[in-house]
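Q: Predict the assembly, please.
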Amino acid sequence: MSQSHNTRIVLASRPQGRVKPENFRIEEQPIPVPGSGELLLKILLLSLDPYMRGRMDDAKSYAAPVAVNDVMEGGTVAEVVKSNHPDYVAGDIVLSHSGWQSYAISNGVGLRKLNSEAAPLSTAVGILGMPGFTAYTGLLTIGQPKPGETVVVAAASGPVGATVGQIARIKGARAVGIAGGPDKCAFIKNELGFDVAIDHRAPDFANQLKDACPNGIDVYFENVGGPVWDAVFPLLNTFARIPVCGLIAQYNSLDLSGNDRLPALMRDILKKSLTVRGFINREFVDQRPAFFEAMNAWLHSGDVKYREDIVDGLTNAPKAFIGLLDGHNFGKLVIKVA
Amino acid sequence: MSQSHNTRIVLASRPQGRVKPENFRIEEQPIPVPGSGELLLKILLLSLDPYMRGRMDDAKSYAAPVAVNDVMEGGTVAEVVKSNHPDYVAGDIVLSHSGWQSYAISNGVGLRKLNSEAAPLSTAVGILGMPGFTAYTGLLTIGQPKPGETVVVAAASGPVGATVGQIARIKGARAVGIAGGPDKCAFIKNELGFDVAIDHRAPDFANQLKDACPNGIDVYFENVGGPVWDAVFPLLNTFARIPVCGLIAQYNSLDLSGNDRLPALMRDILKKSLTVRGFINREFVDQRPAFFEAMNAWLHSGDVKYREDIVDGLTNAPKAFIGLLDGHNFGKLVIKVA
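A: Predicted assembly structure:
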C-alpha cells in the first residue's frame, strides 16, 4: 500500500450471519484534498469495537448503518497534515471518527485535540475514550453498585468489562469477571484485582458462577448476551440493575429456537423489580468532565489498569475485527495505521 | 354467615394454571379477642387486585406467598370496634392489610386513619390508594412522559390503567388506552378523555394500535403482558420507557412455546436504548405526600376521574377475583364486606 494513496476499507456486502473477509474490500484512492475550512487528517490509530458489527446490518438502530461500498466507520486518532481551519495547524493530534482508512477530510466538527504527553494516544480510543466512558457511565449511572454488592461482567478482559470490574471494586462492590480461557482469567484476577474470575468455556460454568455469587447478583453489566445471560438470569437479586451495552454473542444471528424466554424475563422484571436498560454514550455526554477527572486520577493512582492489543497495519483490520467477534483479542483492539 | 363469627376465606390449594373456586375455602371462626395493645377491626371493604394471583403461587417474589390454609391477603378498610391501643378508639376508620375476612386483630403497625368525610372510603384502596399510587409513581418516575409523547396503557378501564392515561394527558402526552369491549373503550375515551381507545379483542388490534401511534410509543405502561406486548413491542421508540407493574395475561401460566422472543427484546433494549423496569410501591414511599397532594387536587379539579366496581358480600370474593383475572370487572374491584 503506497503512502501516496489513501487506503480505505469499505463494506463490500452485508454479512449473512458471521462476518467473513469478503464482506470487506480494500481500495486505494488518491489522497483527498481539503477545501476551505477543512483539514486533511492522516490516521495514526483505528479503534475496532464490537458495535461495528451492528453498523454492518441494514437494521434500524440508534445509528445509521454503513452503506455498502462506504468506508467502515470507526473512532480514530489522527495527525493534522494540512489545515485550512483556523483552530488547527499541521502537527496537531486529534481524536476523530474517520473510519477504516489512512487519510480523511474533516471540517473540524466533532474533533478533539489530544495531548500526546498527557497519556498514550491509544488511550483516547480506550480507557480514556469510548470504552472507558461506556463502562463508567453504564456502571455508575445505571448499575449504581453499592458497597458489598456483587457486580458481574463478561468479556472481562476487554476494555469495557475490565473497566467495569475495576470501578466496581473502587466503589466497594465485589467484582466477578467472566472471560475466555486461563490467560484472560489470570489477568483479570491477578492484574486487575477482580474478586473472582470464571472461564465461560468451563463445562460447569453456570455452577461456578453460582458459587462465585453466594449472595446473588446485584448488577449484571450486559455486554455479551448468549449463554452467559442464561447463567446470570436465575441469580439476579431483587432490585438488580442490568445496563445493556452489548450483545456480542448474538450479533451474528438471532436464534429464535428453543423455549420462549421472554415470559420468564418479564416475570422476573416484575417480581424482582429488575431494571434492564440499554444505553448509548451520547445520553451521558454531560458526564464527560467527571469521567476524565475520575479516570485520570484512577490511572495515576493505579486503581485502574488497562491492556491494549495493538495490531499493525490497516489492511489487517478485517481479520482482527473478525477475531474480535470471536474473542481472540486480549485487551482493547487498536489498529496501528501509521 | 353469622355476624357473631369471623368469616374468612383461606387459600385451600395452590392453583395449577387458572384459578378455580376450589382453590379457596370459606371458614367460620370465633371473632378474635384483642390482647394488650391490640385492636379488633371489623372489615368494611376489601380490595381485590391482580397481584394477589402471584401470592397464590409458591414462587420467589418480592413478597412471601400466602401459605395454604392461611387467610388470603389484601388491603382493607376497617372500623375499630375494640381498642387496647392508645392511638385508636372504637369508631375510628382505618386502612389496614387485614385480608379476606370480616374481622381481624391488629397491633396498630401499618394502619392509617381515614377521614370518611374527606373522600369516599373506597378510594383508600383505589384512586387514593395502592392502584392510584402505582399509576402515579410508575408513570412519572419511570415512564417520565413528556409533552407530545405517546403513552400506551392496557387494562385502561382498570384502576391503574385509567389513572395512568389521565396523568399522561395532564402531563401533555397523548394517551392511547387498550381495553376489552366497546363499553370500556367508550368509557376511557368519552369519560376519561383518552385520545384513542382500542379494543384488544378486535381482530386487527395490532394494526389499530399501529395506526393510533403514528409517531411510535414513548412510554408503555406494562400491566398485562401477553398479546398486547407483541403489538406494542415493534412500535417502541428509541429511549422508550417501560414501567412493569403487572402481567395479568401470563399469571395463570408461563407459555414457553413459540419462538424465543428474548433475543429480540435484548436487541431492541440495546439498539433503542430502552428502559424496562419492574417496580413495587415501597420503593417510592417517600413520594406518598406528593401523590396525595397531586391526586386530591386532580380529583377536585375533575382532571382525574375514577370508576369502582363494588361487589356485595365477602363470600363473593373468590368469584369476583376469578372474574378480575378474566377482565370481567369494570373499574376498581372492591368487596363490600360489611
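Chain B touches chain A through 43 residues (CB under 8 Å). Residues 10 and 71 of chain B are 4 Å apart (CA to CA).
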